[in-house]
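Troubleshooting: if your tokenizer reports a length mismatch, compare against these two reference records.
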Amino acid sequence: MPPLRWGIASAGKISHDFTNALSTWSKDHHLAVAVSARKLENAKSFAQLHGIEKFYQGYEALAKDPNVDAVYIGAINPMHYELGLLMLDHGKHVLCEKPLCMNEGQAKKLLAHATEKKLFFMEAIWSRFFPTYIHLKERIDAGDLGEIKEVDVEFGFLLSDVDRLRMKGLGGGTVLDLGVYTIQVSLWAMRAVPTKIVANGQLNEEGVDMEVNAELQFPNGSVAKMKTSALRKLRNTAIIRGTKGTITLHDFWCATALTDIDGSRKEFPLPRAHHDFNFPNSCGLRFEAEEVRQCIAGGKLQSASVPHSESLTIARIQDEIRKQIGVQFPEDTRFKA
């Protein structure tokens, strides 16, 4: 199987971390071959740092590069939809940073387009490919936790001055930036679609959410309690409680450690990379990259761990939470689910 040749769309912090994580695999498996950014000098310096041969100003040139098999989209939230369409229209498989789109309407159109083009497309819910998440799934599948009754998850840091989170024009707010993680871990444990959502939140002067409390209620009476905040650091764990036992994921969005049912702590260390990372445990981005390679090699258009249906459920929950707390983006009037 030849290496998967990656194009990197955007030269920002998360793209650096993804490309750095990619380099921890053998070049026989993964190869970053091109990068594009809005400013040529940014693409050039990114390429020099990571040893990438080609760099482009703008994204169309990357889409047209015949040597690129798959594109990682690390651009800001409002760009995901257009960039996703662009890459698909030029025959590229896509791994798109979360949140997939600004709302469910966009996500539906984008995923339908990927299916029509017969190309692989996955929202980058990287958490689910960590060994901790695989361990949790195996425990649930084996019935070791019994029936899952509650997920209690908090995700918060002091981020109120970070532009991508505080500004409406950049697709800000904790629901899209942090809430996607609390939602996905709840769905990973519950294996169901919530029947009721109750939410309240605190908005900033831009009209985006800085803190949110939400509850997802499921058909069997189980509940996911979620809290996100850009105003303060929270405990940042996900506690999964079943009728037979409890598992806690520490730093749950990038968990390299968990407390198992018997109270023992299990560690799953990450390898070292060539450069420092911008965000915690970002070397774990290597796992989702390998999932993309394996799926494409197997002729799959979706990952079983983050199928299109799950991305649409996440988007639908985000939309409902935003609706209840009064956060609206221009895309909400243009793209109806």
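Reference record two:
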Amino acid sequence: MGNPISFTPSRRRRNLAAAATVAALAGIAPWPALAQGAFPDKPVRIIVPFGAGGSDSLARALGERLGAQLKQPVIVENKPGAAALIGTEYAAAQPADGYTILFLGGGSLTPVLVKDLKFNLLRAMRPVVCVARGGMTLMVPGTLPVNNFREFVDYAKKNPDKVNFSYTAGSILLAGEMLKSRAGFGATPIPYKGSTQVATALIAGEIQMGIDVPLFYVGMIKEGRIKALAHGASERSPSLPDVPTLAEVGVPDLSFAFSFGFWAPAATPKPIVDRLNVAFNEVLKETDIRARLAQAGVIPVGGPPEVHSSQVMAEQQMWAQAAAAIGYKPE
């Protein structure tokens, strides 16, 4: 039997170096990288590009459950301004590592609705999950002498100089202009800062028509202080099941649909996006979260990331066609 092979320190170093070279050439991560923890190993941030008191409450509820799934804290940050553009651009500029994600629909971030828009959501961000879909609701003051959509249209035609309508975003302004065009009545648009101001104006009779996401108004509608006449989605709102859709009141070719969900910076690796997607889909199975979404008047969606980008592209096309039909230009 020959002498056993012995390794001197220099030979050990040479063999370790050779092994590392082979591993690198084979695409195998070096040992320090293998020792790192899997995603996530620190808190995750959710950026909400709107002010507090609105959609951020839902983002916080979803974030809390996401944290339980990921076993990491989830922090919600509001970064409002410029019709959601400030917070969205901020999120897009963060490291593409999955630790900063955006809560947004995205259908309204289009040049059709935002003047001189240079930001392209579908290029700067990649979808994580579509949380839910819904529609905006047509509302009037509880004191207005109408009880359904047709009565409102008749009232507006008879009082062309007495009907004002509110808007807080380009999508709402375009929705109002489209409704006027299709139904054949006149109304003057009045800008407002948010849903709180719109609700106050409706109840006071300062405006005779409002179009908005129904979440904030459900209680006031059920109390009779505000009347809901039509819902802009393809199905009725779970929180307002007695309110007919636009198609049901005779306007089948008009929609005020929207969806919302989560996005990550475009360069975020697919395995990280998939990990977040799986976690969010588990959250969307929870009974109380589904009840919370129903209370908000929306339908849970979930599914793979591509569902959200497809929905947003459809919404952007919807607004583009609507704007072209009446020659609308953003202000």
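Descriptive notes for reference record two:
- The two ends are 91 Å apart (CA to CA).
- The chain is about 40% helix and 20% strand.
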